[in-house]
Amino acid sequence: MIEDILDEARGKMQSTLSVFREELSRMRSGRASTALVDRMMVDYYGQDTELRQIASVSTPEAMQILIRPYDKAALRNIEKAIQMSDIGVNPNVDGENIRLNMPALTRERRMELVKFLNRRMEDTRVAIRNIRRSANSDLQDFEKEKLISEDDRKRGEAEVQKLTDQYVEQIGELGAAKESDIMEV
Which of 61, 90, 95, 153 has its CA 20 to 30 A from that of 169? Predict the structure, then answer.
């Protein structure tokens, strides 16, 4: 029973960490990254489709993203989706391809990104702690229902805390790596 609670908590914490990793990959840093636009939704023949499904996305230079639509008819819709997004870059269309020239980040913008990163890190830590609280609550319920002993509950809570500490540490490591990436000039 305790193992079931631990497995469920581990699964939830892992998915929370995966979402955090995904957000970090989309966050702008010092160089161009295809993750910035990969999952951008584009109206493709009336369907919202991820950009990566209708175009090849690459970074031919450190500060440039190149988008090559598989279907030339999608070019205008891709351009419109980029203009409507919040990445803050105007697309350059050359007839067949779209180039996104990423401007260098200013010091102020880097500081804003670090603040945003720290907020996201704290939100993710809170989510992990909420999972811990839920798991501990389940352990207490099992103890009240006489399904486990008090010692088992305490042992289970210690395991849940160990798991929580592990994931909070991973969040800190990922955040520190992204922060150094953002601050790198």
Answer: 153
Alpha carbon separation from 133 to 13, 102, 140 (Å, rounded): 12, 42, 10
Residues 130, 167, single domain; the answer is: yes
Q: Which domain holds residue 159?
A: 2-26+106-183
Domain-terminating residue out of 53, 68, 101: 101
Domains identified in the chain, total number: 2
Q: Which token pair is 130?
A: 């909420």
pLDDT reported for residue 85: 82
10/55 same-domain check:
no
Q: Which two tokens stand for residue 135?
A: 């798991």
DSSP H helices, the chain, are 2-26, 51-54, 75-84, 107-144, 150-183
How far is residue 149's CA from residue 165's CA, in Å, rounded to a whole number?
Answer: 24
Q: pTM higher than 0.70, yes or no? A: yes
Cα separation of the two ends of the chain: 51
Average pLDDT, the chain: 90
